[in-house]
Amino acid sequence: MILTKNPYKFLTIVSLSCVSIMANGQDKKQGSITNEDIVIDKERKIELPQANRIFEKIPTIQDANKGKGLRYEFTERKLPIQMPQFSPVVVMPGDGISKENTKLGNYNNVIKAGFGNYAHTFLEGHVGIQPNEDVYHGIYFKHDGNRLGPVGASNSGRSQNLIKVHSKTITNTFKFDGAIGWERQSTHFYGKVPNPYDIVADSIAQHWNKFHYIGSISNAIRGSKIDYTATSGLSFLYTKYDAREWVWDSKINAVFPITNGLTAHFDGNMVISEYTDEVADRRQLFKLKPTFQYKNDFLNISAGINIANDKDKNLNLNDTYVFPTAKIDVQPIENIHVFGGIDGDVYMNNFMNILQEMPWLAAKSQLKDTRKTAEFFAGAKGLLENGFGFEAKVSYGQYRNFYVFNNSGADSTRFNINFSNDTTKVKVTNFSGQLNYQYENFRSLLKVDYYNYAGLGNLDQAWHRPSFTSTWNNTLTFKEKLIVSSDIYFITGLKGKNLITNKEQNLSSIFDLNLKFTYLITDRFNVFVSANNILGKEYQRYLYYPQQGINFLAGLSYSF
């Protein structure tokens, strides 16, 4: 296999390209490229979007007259499971600069502060400078914490703090982006039966720190027939309990035209990590994905192979896999698309990603990479009259090393990550849909997902994975002075098991209603009030971990 013969040569090329970005980098999102459409910014001038004075993202819905630009809203998922964010989790803004044009003033910098119950404090901001039209530097920071939690007062407090410096530079030939930052998150192991106990909060505290750097270089030559982006990032994380991990992740994405409608795509990815929790484990994943794509006004078809080499020192693993990949998109009538395809992949389950998904992870967790041996999918999408748009998709996938979380048998306040056996093919069927609507100052977005799990083997159940999720987001603006938004989340089908009592428990369905009001006092100042979990349900997303009841946050935002 090409990558495994000399993987470091590939990594060196990408890394050297990014070394010069240390002082001139930008945001990771700018280096993102999909296999279907490569879009490289060849404009010499850096156009800064206006600062969104409402940090929470509002889903945008494309104009029905732009049918040819219609793109899939479905995001590539690590597994066909993606939990919606709900209180007390605060939605992360777009790194201080939102692409949303809310017509709220021509300002690129924002500072926002607020206070709420549960001793909630919030501070967020972005400040940037643009020395000339080809260079931009910025700093983004955030503090979001509750000193008190849903049970046991300070025994269940939580916080997030982060700071990131980012930069962008465009020359006649290249665009450089990069960022360097630090993040700290803290929580408590407060899940206990029957009720929280009298104990010093620090003795059950958990926190982790993460330092990271990301840099990219991409083509900026106008009219170039070849486009590319090379990205390289290095992260280091350590926890209170001395677990630590470093991850080096490098990617290259390129497109080469062959004929007027035919192009060749090349995607490469190398991930090298070392996870240490008493014992060090060196893990590596190398991937190459060459594909060909033909595209005209009515048809978009691509086909290729995905080659992955997976290495794990402690598991004595060194295997190479080849997966076919193909997609077809047909437009039978204007603004209506029908699509289908097949795919396969290998996903590295890093300790960093797992810990962000499950903050109450037990010590000495063993990690494995998940293989999607095959996934078949089909669906339709379209823009209808009167501002409506829709997407519907059904997929059937088979996974090896499929993982779930469940309470530890040694301590129910901690969770283990449990993998299916490598000989087991876990079958996941997913029905997903999206309906959006936009009319003047009103936007609405409804998403639903249904999951069915079969062939779980040694897992018995898909512990703490839902069978059905839905989110409904709405935003209404009154004369560009008052913005009212609502978020409704519904999750059901969650199950957990107490391994000490050997009893399985069905968790109650989650119904979470959130409202937010923002009033623009001037073109620079606005006040906001948000209320989360208005119904006051102290539901459990994970067994023995009740969430906050009704909670609110009020504050002031200043744009400059």
From TrEMBL:
Keyword Membrane: yes
Location within or outside the cell: Cell outer membrane
Main location: membrane
GO cellular component: cell outer membrane
Keywords for the protein's UniProt record, in alphabetical order: Cell outer membrane, Membrane
Superkingdom assignment: Bacteria
Classification lineage: Bacteria, Pseudomonadati, Bacteroidota, Cytophagia, Cytophagales
Gene3D superfamilies in the record: TonB-dependent receptor, beta-barrel domain
Protein known as: TonB dependent receptor
InterPro entries in UniProt: Beta-barrel_TonB_sf
